[in-house]
Write a structure and sequence with these properties.
single chain; about 100 residues; alpha+beta; three-stranded antiparallel beta sheet; two-stranded antiparallel sheet; about 30% strand
Amino acid sequence: MAWERRGSNLYYYQSKRVNGRVRKNYVGAGEVAQAIAHSDETIRQSRAAQSERARVELEEARTLASAGEELCEAADILAVAQLVAAGYHRHKGEWRMRRRA
């Protein structure tokens, strides 16, 4: 979205992507164009704020997930330690009791 000077006048254009190419659409000049430009700027700021909120929420979710992953890893280590202490071993991915001779 941009104001363009053509000669001594200012005109407002909106840019849109059509089939991978940028196309500019003439909106107008004067007060109507200023109102539309203001509206476009408000929408742009709203989208930026929404994007920032989503980024913060994603970061919080990743922090919580990493804490859960650490807890899961600690539980796995404790389970393996308990099985080894009880006399089990891993055989082709299975836990089996050791043979007594």
